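Q: Joint fold for the lines below.
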Amino acid sequence: MDDIRFAVLGTGGIGRRTLEVATHRDGLTPVAACDRNGVAIDHDGLDVDELLDATEGNIASGPSDERDVAPDGGAAAGGVKQHGEQAGIVASDQGRETETPIDDVIAEADEIDAVLMALPNLEHDFIPRVAQRFADADYEAVLIDVLKRSRVIGMLEDREQRLVDAGITFVCGAGATPGLLTGAAALAAQSFVEIESVDIWWGVGLKSGYEDNRGTVREDIAHLDGYDIESAREMSEAEIEALIDEHDGRLEFDDMEHADDVLLERAGVCDAEDVTVGGILDVRQDEKPTTTTVSVTGRTFDGETGTNTFQLDDATSMEANVNGPAIGYLKAAVLRNRAGDYGVYGPAELMPTF
Ligand SMILES: NC(=O)c1ccc[n+]([C@@H]2O[C@H](COP(=O)([O-])OP(=O)(O)OC[C@H]3O[C@@H](n4cnc5c(N)ncnc54)[C@H](O)[C@@H]3O)[C@@H](O)[C@H]2O)c1
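A: Joint structure:
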């Protein structure tokens, strides 16, 4: 495959690791990265090591704000919690401060083959609206996200014709769950002619990565009983710490709104209601508190009922299982885009490329 020039929107816990994982994969040149405060662009290729060193322990994290989403100057919805104007990419020699980081990347989009959106999703229409802005700028290449929420997929489908008209190939929910595990479920389903259930059960240990992954932890809290997207967005860091203390560092989630359900339905594998997603997050130990397992139960053509399972090795980190697939799906999407195949795809509809 020819060299792929790619950008990462959001250099938090996930986006930083996207850049790092990409250095281990062939044919990828990172040419742009941005966070809420700044942007770094170099069409000859960013110096990933320098950028990672500069942002180590210094992520411009927190919920998304709207300041460069609403060109009309629309106010941010709810309180915006920032970690200082100098946090994140502006601390890198390659970075510069900007009020319009995403627009600055869009302005260079003619020379970019793929854009990976590692942005927060606490305002769940944030990523669809960013996609729309690329389409409105007549970007003709690949967009990919690692979002989690089921409801966002419909928002992307609503914009599908606009994306096709622009010439965009969009892969949504292309991280771990949804993402790798959704794709694994679609493969595991092939033994059967009818699927009864898909159960996804994940385990993540984050002790050494907790500081880097506060954005993801905040979003996960929104899935707990008694919390929702709005309340999780408004929580202070101290409130999050207190909640984690109450649970001794271990949060268990049942029946999460994860887009694996609608993405498997899109791919024709089963009904969304037959899919359940849950898991355990432990922010005080690196070991996974439980083994990530996908169980697909179905009926075979000759009348047997069985369960195919797919497990991740406990040694593989969340960051490895999100970013490896995201890059694999990004590469697959570039091949599709170059073949003139545009539109919205989920991770159960195409095979990631290594
Ligand atoms: N599918 C999966 O398996 C999976 C797993 C983990 C995380 N995720 C998703 O990955 C996403 C990123 O998570 P994270 O932990 O890296 O979050 P984070 O908070 O650490 O990072 C978010 C980044 O986005 C930037 N950002 C916020 N608003 C912005 C704006 N208006 N313009 C430009 N940049 C902006 C921030 O500065 C930061 O760099 C989340 O949506 C999370 O749900 C998915």
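Q: Anything notable?
A: The chain has two domains: 4-177+319-349, 187-315. The chain is about 30% helix and 20% strand.
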